[in-house]
């Protein structure tokens, strides 16, 4: 029963964290007793860090880190990746839209030489996440590949993790992973209702990010 790590970036999510930890532990207990939960606070302006400190006292499996400025979600993911010690490593958003109940779908398709990416099923993308849908549509059109309905809900192995943390440049978790040239497969899951709060990704921010990723992809091909 090898260790499984779960990494999540935290930004103004104090009300989600206790339930997130509870659901991670509940949905992994049939796979392993060695659970490592890594939460990276991306300079939240609410009481997320104080909540994390309290939760740390009650959860031995919890590791918490506090960034000194707002670097962005994907920097926080990478920071957490450098701290992970599991054989299998999950990345997921902290608001429970990426619900741990779907861990089994990823683990049933696990291959240490594969990157397993969660894709939102059609029923959960029509009325939710319009901004992210526009982002992935734009990215797909401009890179001539199908990236529709991609999420940050991802499972990788320790082998892939080692290569990821060696990359110096940080763009977007999905982009950084697929640039490693491992095989990529996907599983479909239902996007759940956000536990609390709203997304920090605006339309403008996502469009700018799409063009930044495309520019980076072009540079890699040159």
Describe the structure.
The chain has 222 residues and is α/β, with parallel strands linked by helices. 39% of the residues lie in helices and 20% in strands. A seven-stranded mixed beta sheet has the order 3-2-1-4-6-5-7, with helices on both faces. Helix 1 links the parallel strand 1 and strand 2 (35-41). Helix 5 runs parallel beside helix 8. The mean pLDDT is 86.
Please give a quick description of this structure.
With 222 residues, this protein is an alpha/beta fold. The protein has helices spanning 17-28, 48-58, 73-83, 103-107, 130-143, 158-166, 173-178, 203-221, and strands spanning 4-10, 35-41, 62-66, 88-91, 114-120, 150-157, 183-189. It has a single domain (4-119, 150-193), classed as Spore Coat Polysaccharide Biosynthesis Protein SpsA, Chain A (Alpha-Beta Complex), CATH 3.90.550.
Number of strands: 7
Strand content: 15-25%
Largest sheet: 7 strands, mixed
Name the CATH superfamily classification: Spore Coat Polysaccharide Biosynthesis Protein SpsA, Chain A
CATH topology: Spore Coat Polysaccharide Biosynthesis Protein SpsA, Chain A
Can you list the strand order of the major beta sheet?
3-2-1-4-6-5-7
Kindly give the count of domains: 1
């Amino acid at each position: 029963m090898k260790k499984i790590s779960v990494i999540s970036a935290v930004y103004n999510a104090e009300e989600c964290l206790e339930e997130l930890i509870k659901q991670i532990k509940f949905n992994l207990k049939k796979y392993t007793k060695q659970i490592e939960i890594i939460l990276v606070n991306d300079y939240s302006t609410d009481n997320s860090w104080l909540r994390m400190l309290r939760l740390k006292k009650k959860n031995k499996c919890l590791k918490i880190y506090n960034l000194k400025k707002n670097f962005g979600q994907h920097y926080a993911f990478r920071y957490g990746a450098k701290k992970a010690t599991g054989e299998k490593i999950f990345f997921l958003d902290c608001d429970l839209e990426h619900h741990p109940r779907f861990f089994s779908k990823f683990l049933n398709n696990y291959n240490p030489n594969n990157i397993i990416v969660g894709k939102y099923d059609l029923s959960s993308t029509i009325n939710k996440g319009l901004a992210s849908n526009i982002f992935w549509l734009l990215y797909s059109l401009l890179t001539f590949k199908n990236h529709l309905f991609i999420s940050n809900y991802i499972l990788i192995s320790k082998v892939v993790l080692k290569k990821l943390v060696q990359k110096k440049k940080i763009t977007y978790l999905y982009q950084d992973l697929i640039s490693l040239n491992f095989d990529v497969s996907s599983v479909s899951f239902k996007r759940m209702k956000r536990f609390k709060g709203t997304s920090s990704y605006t339309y403008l921010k996502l469009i700018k990010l799409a063009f930044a990723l495309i520019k980076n992809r072009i540079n890699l091909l040159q």
